[in-house]
Sequence to fold (189 residues):
Amino acid sequence: MCKIIFIIIISSSMFISCESEYTPKPNGYLRLDFPKKVYQQYQSDCPFTFEYPQYAKIDIDKSIHAEPCWINVVIPSLRAKIYCSYKTMSKDVNHYLEDARTMVYKHTVKADAINEKAFVNKEKKVYGVLYDIKGNAASSVQFYLTDSVTHFLRGALYFNAEPNKDSLAPAIKFIHQDIERLIETFQWK
Fold:
């Protein structure tokens, strides 16, 4: 009789202990190991120069609509690309400024906020604005640089991934420093 009661107690305790609720783990994001920041000078026949990271490469834009001096700063390890399009200004600077602003504010549909930071280097005659686009927008960082008379360069950061502000945040922050370095070291020839 004692053996039967013992078996019933053990069996029922095993049965009850197996009824615990399953709680799924939340989705995690990959840990990114970022390379050391070392910069090199971009030199070409184009009328500008700047510093870019050694872990990036420069590709000449060969798309069907590309113009001379359109380049891409490609960061393969992060599947990121900074598209840079250059124009010799044939119209008033306000035309180019409005065009750049329109391209940024097309992202308001998905953006939570758009912050602007002005850059002015009177000595080098480089003036521009850096746009931080918060949220799940396709492009999270855009900028333009000009001398206000002849030259205009617009840049936009894109990832070869679906926009997700949480998973891309570390990579955006890392590349944002490179874009600021590009802007701060930018010179017209």
Notes: The helical segments are 2-17, 93-105, 165-185. The mean pLDDT is 87.
